[in-house]
Specification:
Radius of gyration: 25 Å
CATH architecture of the largest domain: 3-Layer(aba) Sandwich
Largest sheet: 11 strands, mixed
Order of helices and strands: HEEEEEEEEEEEHEEEEHEHEHEEEH
CATH topology of the largest domain: Rossmann fold
CATH superfamily of the largest domain: SGNH hydrolase
Helix content: 10-25%
Number of helices: 6
Number of domains: 2
CATH class of the largest domain: Alpha Beta
Strand content: 25-35%
Number of strands: 20
């Protein structure tokens, strides 16, 4: 390069950069979010969405993904994720293909054109994973009512409250209660087995009957013990208000089709052996409602999401066989996947109906054993 051409290049560079120096560019990333997990496909990859805003003059957006040494996954060097046609009114949208693993460090840079090597701005998200997401639902033992808060130890478990992702320390966002849950030890065990990040979407609500989880207008002859999510009809029957169902399906829909691995359903104590026998729901009536909940939710989210259903009927004792049989019948007919037998967790593993700290850890391990066995059977490594 001659002195004259070098001077012209520096002048052109100054014209481009001085406005950015005095007025920093309005760059913001909307996706991916910090600690976000994207559900891996069966081919062990996914397209990680990258979306945000750029300042005027940018016509090229590039991204790369780095990995810590020893992590599962594959780093990706700089690649174009958005150009002129994907940038509209200062907004851009693109994606970067990533293999299962993480945490990835995703860096996005902005350039005026492909011919201009200068990066006008950069933005980085430090923790993005491609792994498995699980939606947990049911009553108190699926939420935050255990004796002692749990903390994931693997560094690979995060949770989503509908707006932001965070490390999955108890209490889990999005579920009721302020104490401990089985989800950190479950996530740790799954991360150890599959070497990928685990995302938790917790939806459980303490003391709820399956009747309260039903779509709006679902009728049944007798109410649950608590009536906040149901209403009595003029003919004396009862129906669900549908508010829990709407929350539950909305959170699943937000993840998109095939956007999570499975629903983990842990519920039954509030339908078994109620103080008022008329409010108990076991056997065929329980089975019919839970099957309807599974089928209706699959229809409304637009895909056949797997459900893993636990054996749950105990208030600290042996449990109620008619309710356990109803839950197991869903496994036998292929409507749901076999979940853990949490009624077997007794004695020092419980604090009444809820689990002690050791019980929460054992509960998480039991969930991981059943879910991982199902995944391995399906050929998922």
């Amino acid at each position: 390069m001659t002195p004259a051409s070098l001077l012209r290049f520096l002048q052109r560079l100054a014209v481009c950069l001085l406005p950015w120096f005095f007025c920093p560019p309005a760059v913001s990333l909307e996706l991916p979010l910090e600690w976000q997990v994207f559900q891996r496909r069966d081919d062990e990859a996914t397209e990680v969405s990258v979306r945000g805003k750029v300042p005027p003059g940018v016509t090229l957006v590039e991204a790369k993904a780095d990995l810590p040494p020893g992590s599962r996954g594959q780093a990706v060097d700089w690649r174009v994720i958005a150009s002129d046609t994907q940038i509209q009114d200062g907004n851009f949208s693109g994606s970067i293909p990533l293999q299962a693993g993480g945490w990835y460090r995703i860096t996005v840079r902005f350039r005026a054109s492909a011919a201009d090597p200068v990066s006008l701005a950069e933005s980085t998200v430090e923790h993005v994973g491609v792994g498995d997401i699980f939606v947990t639902a049911g009553q108190s033992n699926s939420s935050n009512h255990g004796q002692e808060k749990q903390t994931p130890r693997s560094g690979l478990v995060s949770a989503f409250n509908g707006q932001r992702w965070q490390v999955a320390n108890d209490p889990q966002p999005g579920a009721s209660g302020g104490q401990g849950s089985f989800m950190p030890p479950f996530g740790d065990a799954m991360a150890e087995q599959f070497k990928v990040p685990v995302g938790i979407i917790a939806c459980g609500i303490g003391a709820t009957s399956v009747r309260e989880w039903m779509p709006k207008g679902t009728k049944f002859p007798n109410p649950p013990t608590l009536e906040g999510h149901v209403r009595k009809l003029p003919d004396g029957s009862w129906e669900s208000k549908g508010d829990i169902y709407e929350m539950f399906t909305a959170r699943m829909k937000s993840l998109g089709p095939h956007g999570f691995r499975a629903v983990l359903w842990h519920q039954g104590e509030s339908d078994a052996d109620q103080p008022d026998p008329k409010r108990t729901l076991i056997g065929k009536p329980y089975r019919q409602l839970l099957e309807q909940l599974i089928r209706d939710s699959r229809r409304d989210i637009g895909w056949e999401a797997p459900w893993v259903v636990a054996l749950v009927s105990s208030h600290g004792g042996e449990g109620v066989s008619e309710l356990r049989d109803a839950q197991q019948s869903l496994w036998d007919e292929g409507i749901a996947v076999e979940g853990p037998d949490s009624d077997a967790l007794r004695g020092a593993l419980r604090d009444g109906v809820h689990f002690s700290s050791k019980g929460l850890q054992k509960h998480g391990q039991l969930w991981a054993e059943k879910v991982s066995a199902w995944m391995l059977y399906k050929g998922i490594q």
